[in-house]
Amino acid sequence: MSAGRKVGSGVRIHTAKQSQTFAEASLFAETCHCDAVARVASEVCILPRTEVLAAFTLDPGLSNRFSADLAQSLMRTRRILELRAIGPLGEGVLARLAEVVDADGTLQKEVALLSLADDLGVTGPALYRALAQLEKDGRIVRPARGRVRLVR
After folding, report:
1. CA separation for the pair 72, 21 (Å, rounded)
2. Which residues, including other chains, have CB under 8 Å from residue 19's CB and lie 6 or more apart?
């Protein structure tokens, strides 16, 4: 395990945005071991399990859309785990940046730099050390605070 990797921390498998579901596994399990943390003021609606399952029976299209959403979430989670397996950390940072930069290689404004640390399962300071090394190696430039551009 490289320096800066969090030990014993949970694994973020989903970031729910407005009108999205989370903890879907609870529909099919007696107990579901997951936590949710709201980073902004939020309103959460709890959907009764029996009603949701009945709606799937009545509307197969709803069930299909739900399944497709779960499959997409699983693929995103699998990618996050793949990124965390890349070593050294700088290479993982580059791999993740390549997925979130725009056509010019610049980190998109809606992507918080620290979200990369969450994605890679590292601390903020470890991410910043990796970015400093990548900048020193000429693989990225940091034109402004919180902004990164890949050197291609």
Report:
1. 13
2. none
Judge whether 125 and 4 are in contact, CB under 8 Å. Answer: yes
Distance separating alpha carbons of residues 55 and 106, to the nearest angstrom: 43
DSSP string computed for 24-49: GGGGS-S--------SS-----PPPH
Tell me the torsion sign for CA atoms 69, 70, 73, 78: negative
Nearest one of 72, 78, 80 to 21, comparing CA atoms: 72
Assess contact for 70 and 64: CB atoms under 8 A.
no
Region 3-23: mean pLDDT is 68
Instruction: Please tell me which residue, 6 or 13, carries the higher pLDDT value.
Output: 13
Look up the pTM and report it: 0.69
User: How confident is the model over 90-111, as pLDDT tens digits?
Assistant: 999 999 999 999 999 999 888 8
Positive or negative: CA dihedral 74, 75, 79, 85: positive
Residue 12 exposure: Cα atoms within 13 Å on the Cβ side: 17
pLDDT at 1: 37
